[in-house]
Write a structure and sequence with these properties.
single chain; about 180 residues; alpha+beta; Peptide Deformylase; five-stranded antiparallel beta sheet; binds ligand UDB; binds zinc ion
């Protein structure tokens, strides 16, 4: 069971590395990716999160648990506890994206960053990605809104990019022209 002690904190070299492509989807890779998804699911369950002191997460990239592998998990429940997004992606790749940008109005955080860093992180409003799933199938995913933001944040982790790298140093809280806040 993954807990907060398994989550690598900034600054750590692995968080600044370009993660390696997953060449073979073996049993170990599948179980590692499942444990990442399980962390997110557990962290959104009140009793389990409380019991194991888990920070409630919506996405997790393999380097954040010390794995040099290009894979990520996204798990988002809505307020009624219904699953909205549930993905385990291997070798994800952004194939195209909108010109339009969006941002989380309250800024972003990160499970690997303990302090709050203020400022807007601009992301593409819509993205089209391809990835491989744990059953070895190719998947194409068109994402917008929250899912697009989470996927971009996690794919950045696979490229050694932290959310705060994308905050404007001079005008951190200024929305870019034409960017719409995530509703
Ligand atoms: C770091 C943390 C604050 C825990 C963040 N959670 C989060 O943003 N939850 C959230 C946001 C909403 F807008 C509405 C809602 F219902 C819940 C998160 O899990 N991550 C995952 C992470 O660190 N992955 O590496 C950071 C998010 C910032 C933008 C996308 C992922
Ligand atoms: Zn993060």
């Amino acid at each position: 069971l993954l807990t907060m002690k398994d989550i690598v904190r900034d600054p750590a070299p692995i968080l600044r590395k370009k993660a390696a492509e997953v060449s073979e989807i073996d049993e170990e890779t599948i179980s590692q990716l499942k444990s990442m998804r399980e962390y997110l699911k557990n962290s959104q369950n009140e009793e389990i999160a409380e019991k194991y002191k888990l920070r409630s997460g919506v996405g997790l990239a393999a380097p954040q648990i010390g794995l040099d592998k290009r894979m990520l998990a996204v798990y988002i429940e809505n307020t009624e506890g219904e699953v909205e997004y549930d993905y385990m992606l291997i070798n994800p790749k952004v194939k195209s994206h909108s010109v339009a940008e969006t941002y989380m109005p309250s800024g972003e955080g990160c499970l690997s960053v303990d302090e709050n860093i203020e400022g807007l992180v601009h992301r593409y409003k819509r993205i089209r990605i391809t990835a491989t799933t744990i059953d070895g199938k190719q998947l194409e995913l068109k994402a917008k809104g929250m899912l697009a933001v989470v996927l971009q944040h996690e794919i950045d982790h696979l490229d050694g990019i932290m959310f705060y790298d994308r905050i404007d140093k001079d005008f951190p809280n200024d929305p870019k022209i034409g960017a719409e806040p995530l509703e």
